[in-house]
Design brief:
By secondary structure, the chain is mainly α. Helix content is 78%, strand content 0%.
């Protein structure tokens, strides 16, 4: 749910504060770049921590996320401080995500009964419910309600984390000493897989980040943005709650290749949608792309990598997504200033098409793992 006010409505907040599309792209790109740099260290801390657990690290991350969000609530915050705080806010929020996936796999690997697809789907439906109201909230209460909501949701996450089992390694789990680059060299096909993710998410990120501008192009605004966010999240929820049934007796690698194809379909169809109905039809591809990819990629990394590298593997997938976010936000923001929103999104779609072939080359057959 916190992804909505913090990330999905970032352009709405920053445009209101006087930032241009190019500046927004640069700010979000910088946030994602810093997050990609920091995530391996967070993963290493999670892998090696004997004095604190992964759960404890995540609670601390929630506290850190709340600090810049509180500063952004105030309308008279100086613009340079707004830029700094939003950069830090996105950096920390993106860094939190691989820890959450790793926590899910940690619980599974320690024998706790967890349906990760269902859990991920509940996240999407929570996002959808909030998204229905976010557009109207910003119209009624101004954009300053967005960081307030983000702060409140992170506080709720922190409380919920306190109810989960506190699993500590106590030095019993063998941990790899490899750094990020060494890990990628050790698993060359996983490296190709990550490159494919980067290029696929360039377009996925561009569409998500600049959906407000896509809607403006067809004569819509904030209210429709919330509705579109809710619609895509609802599609994700439907797929994710039935994830294990949908992929039963299917190879995880083949499921991921199927997702990659529909990432490219989404990248091509969305910018060509000339009205709201066609846009909704184009976004149906979300159900067969990101909705399947989100849980499948977590299971995939948990199987193709040895135990000592699994948290780092989850972090590498998120880093790849983050780098895609960097390129998507930065390039598309500047492309839009040069040639308009439709051409800008289509240029990122071309990158997604290339990424699909890297993705196919890097995805291994794993056998039936569900």
């Amino acid at each position: 749910m916190s992804y909505g006010p913090i990330y999905s409505f970032a352009t709405v907040y920053l445009l209101e504060r006087g930032f241009s599309n190019g500046q927004i792209g640069t700010l979000i790109g910088l946030s994602c770049a810093l997050s990609a740099i920091c995530q391996p260290f967070a993963a290493a801390a999670a892998d090696r921590g004997t004095h604190f657990s992964l759960r404890t690290l995540m609670i601390f991350a929630c506290l850190l996320i709340m600090l810049p969000a509180i500063v952004l609530i105030f309308p008279y915050t100086p613009i340079p401080l707004v830029a700094l705080c939003y950069t830090v806010l996105i950096l920390l929020h993106l860094g939190y995500q691989p820890l959450l996936s790793a926590l899910g796999m940690q619980l599974l690997n320690h024998g706790y009964p967890l349906n990760f697809g269902l859990a991920r789907g509940i996240g999407s439906i929570g996002y959808a419910i909030l998204a229905v109201f976010l557009g109207n909230f910003t119209l009624r209460f101004s954009v300053y309600c967005l960081p307030l909501l983000g702060c409140f949701l992170c506080f709720c996450s922190m409380i919920l984390l306190r109810t989960l089992p506190d699993i500590r390694s106590h030095g019993s789990t063998r941990v790899s000493s490899q750094g990020t680059l060494s890990l990628l060299r050790a698993y060359p096909r996983f490296s190709l897989f990550c490159i494919g993710i980067v290029l696929l998410f360039v377009s996925h990120s561009a569409i998500n980040t600049y959906m407000f501008q896509i809607l403006e192009h067809i004569g819509k605004g904030e209210a429709e943005l919330g509705q579109v966010m809710a619609y895509t999240a609802l599609l994700e929820f439907v797929v994710m709650i039935f994830f294990l049934r949908l992929v039963k007796n299917r190879d995880c690698g083949n499921v991921l290749r199927f997702c990659a194809f529909f990432f490219v379909c989404k990248a091509a169809f969305v910018p060509l949608a000339g009205n709201l109905l066609l846009l909704y039809l184009a976004l149906l591809t979300q159900a067969l792309s990101f909705a399947l990819f989100a849980p499948a990629s977590v299971y995939y990394a948990n199987v193709v990598l040895p135990e000592q590298d699994r948290v780092k593997g989850q972090a590498l997938i998120t880093i790849a997504i983050t780098i895609g976010n960097i390129l998507g936000s930065f390039l598309c923001g500047h492309f839009m200033e040069l040639c308009g929103v439709t051409i800008a999104i289509l240029l990122t779609a071309a990158m997604a098409f290339v990424g699909m072939f890297f993705f196919f080359g890097g995805t291994e057959k794993t056998g039936v793992i569900w």
